[in-house]
Amino acid sequence: MSDQQDINVARAAKLDTATLSDALDKHGIAGQCYRIKARGDGFAMAGRAYTLLYGPASNPPGTVGDYIDDVPPGSVLVLDNGGRDNATVWGDILTEIAHRRGIAGTVIDGVCRDVALCRKLGYPVFSRDHWMRTGKDRVQVEATNVAVNIGDARVQPGDILRGDADGVVVIPREHETAVLDTAEQIEQAENAIREAARGGMRLDEARRQFRYHQLQTKGA
Question: What is the count of structural domains for the chain?
């Protein structure tokens, strides 16, 4: 990974998902992961995607999760279980190992279990929900480090994922510098608008002065 790529992950970590979402809209990128939410208060993460695609179990069934020792530290694990909510693909053993190995977090298009441990350790897990039933003999890993779908957003290996209390966004690698530049401009404008409003300026005037709507609108 290049120094610039490392810098961009750090830049993303300083921005909230709402600001990044507005920047994605500005660039016409559908990077908001619909209905994917943190499983614990205060969970936040930023890192590059290490992806896994799941499918229905074969006969005999394949493995659900023996990949964890191959994941580089600092990565975000991205598990596409097709939105299934009747079987989990993440639990306490994976949480413990991922936390110990310095993995940045886990994002699941589906459900997880054993949320008490991820909350205790402070290991960020984001998913559609949580439930206790195992995915063993129900689903299996079909492919690793391929393009996947998380909440209607396409995620490719190496894309930046950022998660916080508002959810998860994915920033495609080929657009990350432009999206981050725009997000930082939006953040600066919002800070300036707040300061102007504190000084007595009308909100509509402050938004006009700092070109707030143009920063969020594609092609503006």
Answer: 2
| The two structure tokens encoding residue 182 | 């725009």
CA distances from 80 to 50, 108, 158, 161, 185 (A): 11, 6, 15, 14, 32
Shared domain for 54 and 91, answered yes or no, is yes
Give the global pTM: 0.92
**CB-based burial of residue 2 (10 Å sphere; 0-12 exposed, 13-18 middle, 19+ buried)?**
exposed
Q: Are residues 167 and 146 in the same domain?
A: yes
Domain of residue 203, residue span:
179-216
Domain identity same for 120 and 53: yes
Per-residue pLDDT of the chain (220 residues; tens, 9 = 90+): 556 559 999 999 999 999 999 999 999 999 999 999 999 999 999 999 999 999 999 999 888 878 999 999 999 999 999 999 999 999 999 999 999 999 999 999 999 999 999 999 999 999 999 999 999 999 999 999 999 999 999 999 999 999 999 999 999 999 999 999 999 999 998 888 888 889 987 888 888 887 777 777 776 6
One domain for residues 95 and 203 = no
